[in-house]
Design a protein that fits this description.
The chain is mostly beta strands and 112 residues long. Helices cover 0% and strands 39% of the residues. It has a single domain, classed as Rieske Iron-sulfur Protein, CATH 2.102.10.10. The strands form 3 sheets. It has a 4-stranded antiparallel beta sheet, with no helix packed on it. Strand 3 (23-30) and strand 4 form a beta hairpin. Bound molecules: FE2/S2 (inorganic) cluster.
């Protein structure tokens, strides 16, 4: 498994970007714990960061695609507003161990 970061480096209402063997991901902290999504908007396949590793959120905590304003629930990945409403981000399995977030091996990461 690949270590991404310490859990306490994450905060609700913000996100971190990582490159993985399967492509870029967005890592967020939700009330249910860390969640990761492909850094690909379902509308036009563009990245969700407006600058490398910089993401937009609504005051209510929705992740906003900077290109055309699609809004996503951080916990479910569902698009709740915008041009791809009803679609969803693609989940990337992560796990928490020893206070760190790890990319699960299913993502093509190193299994050592
Ligand atoms: S590419 Fe994300 S809303 Fe259009």
């Amino acid at each position: 498994m690949k270590k991404l970061c310490a859990v306490d480096e994450l905060a609700e209402g913000s996100a971190k970007a990582f490159d993985t063997p399967g492509g870029g991901i967005v890592l967020l902290l939700t009330v249910e714990g860390p969640r990761a999504w492909r850094n690909v908007c379902p509308h036009q396949g563009r990245s969700l960061d407006f600058a490398p590793g910089e993401f937009l959120f609504t005051p209510t905590g929705l992740l906003v695609c900077p290109h055309h304003g699609a809004c996503f629930e951080p916990g479910s990945g569902a698009c709740t507003d915008g041009p791809c409403q009803g679609s969803a981000l693609t989940a990337v399995p992560v796990t928490v161990k020893d206070g760190h977030v790890w990319l699960a091996p299913q993502d093509g990461a190193d299994r050592r």
